[in-house]
Amino acid sequence: MTITEFNEILDFAVEREHEAVSFYRQLQQEAAFADQKKMLKELEEMEMGHIVVIESIRKKGVKPEDIQKTPNLKISEYLSKELEQKELNYQNILIKAMKREEISYKLYTEMSQKFSDQELVNLFKRLASDEAKHKLHFELLYDDFLSKGN
Question: What is the pTM of this model?
Fold first, then answer.
């Protein structure tokens, strides 16, 4: 893998994170309650933190030990993606967030399987690993929300 290819992949990942930041900013405009806006602002900031992580990868590269195994509760895989017209409430915000992370995880996982260059494989596996952690975060919040009888 060339430095140019490495940077192009990271540029793509950073662009996806910027899209997520915009997504959560837009939802903040649609949110009716201060608690919703606060949570969406936190999600926006989390996505901005992802950009910092990716830029760190740009500087330091990826080693196999950087790739963490994350449990998958598979909650998002069993939930409907059709939320565009549904009410913007806590549960639906979590579902949207889970779905976004699930899509990113699947994209990077599939990309890691399409290349034989071990550096590329490690890079995509690291990006997928980070998305899996974010997905797990939202799945745990969702599970906690449901377990409280909501």
Answer: 0.84
